[in-house]
Amino acid sequence: MTADLCIHGGRVVDPANGIDQTADVWISDGCITGIGDFSGDATRTIDARGLVVAPGLIDMHVHLREPGQEWKEDIASGSQAAVAGGITTLCCMPNTTPTIDHAGVVRQVIERAREVGLCRLHPIAAVSKALKGKELTEMRELHRAGAVAFSDDGLPVWHAGVMRKALEYAASFGFLIIQHAEELQLTHDGCINEGWISTQLGVNGMPAAGEDTMVARDIMLCRLTGGRYHVAHISTAGAVALVRAAQAEGLPVSAEAAPHHFALTEEELLGYNTDAKMNPPLRSETDRQAVIAGLRDGTIATIATDHAPHHPDDKRCGLSCAAFGIVGLETMLPVSLQLVRDGVLTLPRLIANMGQHPAQLLGLKSGTLNIGAAADLCIFDPKRKWVVDRYQLRSKSHNTPWHGKTMTGQVIHTIMDGRIVFQLGSEE
Amino acid sequence: MKHLFGIADLTRQQITTLLDLGESFIELSRRSLRKTPTLRGKTIINLFFENSTRTRTSFEIAGKRLSADVINISAATSATQKGETLLDTAQTLAAMRPHVLVIRHSVAGCCHFLADYLPHTAIVNAGDGAHEHPTQLLTDLLTLRQQWPSVEGKILTMVGDIAHSRVARSHLIAAATLGYHIRLVAPKTLLPQQVERYGCEIFHDFDAAIPGSDAIYMLRIQSERLTDNCAFPSVREYHEAYGLNRARLARANPGCVVMHPGPINRGVEIATDVADGAQSRILDQVEHGVAIRMAVLTTMCGGQNYDR
What is the C-alpha to C-alpha distance for residues A365 and A396, in angstroms, rounded to an integer? Predict the structure, then answer.
């Protein structure tokens, strides 16, 4: 038996196939050819003893800023950041310039990612033309071009009538609508969560009710239309409860959580830290615990970063003037591993939340170690500690709330199509 | 003390020291020759991004009476009109080596933010958004000190737009440090979330809050901002519910004083006869404002930062 690459002796975790065991994984011609005890000649061997070998991670919610805002990030730098975080599949949001609302832009983005060749990129196209919330995009055409879901993320689909039509039209073809759930009438001049912290800082707040009311409305529209509905970056106890109830009713409702919403609270804003400002904002400890409970009971079955790079100029200002968003690709895995250490999720369930589950939701082939599947893998040391240095991130932007913090868990190798696309310490 | 961002940064002892110093400056401002050479050779820049008459003038007069060189810059005439950022404007002015930069800006926390980039300049917060207004707070305390030896145990009833008030937040913090009690009076639309966590009492009925009050502190209503926001239906209804008039004042403790950070809206939050009446301390506050700012500027230019 021969193989191009053998990953030897790691803890292989493949939730889609119910695998969690110490084994070798071998790869030939870019595909996984076996899992078990490898005996034979491999062109190259990676010693994975003591490491976890998992399917390459999927992050279904990122902003790559290309086309249009390449000074913040582009597909090349975003891909480098992704693979350094063990992520081999990205879904990018359409709030670029131009908006991803035409098939041409979808193809351009996919083609650019192929040229970069580090990870897979599946665009999420806009629900409404130019994100204006008025006319629907040509969803079938966009889907044929490669869009895997639809969202006006950055903004909600605020108009109830448009949302109804979007869900109905999308339901006709089985498409997923991803909502940035925010009632703008309640949050319009806010910059952080509304509550004791916003009161002390003297800044306008965004009440949790702004998210809750939009999710409540949308769930009623799901009931009306039968449309598939996904709550992006869920952050409030109220929204988690609404999604849980909708799922119990059998509605096609799902949700994702961002690592910052289950790892951090609004306390980070004390001192006016603009790198802790994002939308939805960091919430209260009660909300954080509700998001964790949602992950524990499976109400929330996906973890995604909402990676939102911003230039330092847009963060080097007063809190109320600063741009919303933080980078997250390179910290998703170690921050999320805390859920395993805290006993919230088993390691296989955590891996499923960043692989199998989003793949199922979006109809992707990634997220498994199926024999014969493209060899996308993430090999990480769950115990290795490292300190986040914002200036060492591969992303073009530095806006992380974890600067100077110690992470536990580090990606050692990332493999895409059988190629090593990231190797810790091998960079310039 | 390197900077003065807010009352939250001050200990009880530091507050007392500033008030003692301020008290000594009241007398100076009543002399025929109102000048002392204390800050000769010092440069103070007043950088005001929001309209202000009394605070800016007060800082200017304070600096001049201390013989400092005082430069006033207002947003209307500054480079910000040409698109310069707050940080660039502040860094540019700091590069001219003032000893103190006095800043008023609508963005809460702007002084904390700028201080990280201006290592050689002392920053005094002259009001940052709805966050803090420490020199107004000290002014109020100096005014109350003329009334009673100590504010401890006294009840200060604040009425009006608490949500947008930096003066209210500074008082809520100081009350905990100095041991006075605050009653907040406003409709829920004008109260920030969870404000009771400061340890104050909340009233929506002004008449219920008046008995027992030692001082009534009226806040200005910015009617244009609030009617747009549906914070109250009309100025008429507001005045009826929350305006201070003689009948209401008569039900407070004997000797209850009336305060206001200004500018006042006669007939809106305060009736003319109350504003001009014997219990009003509104103009005393203005006078003490100069004395307190002299104390603050002296402190900022003194000590280990003397040759900054």
Answer: 29
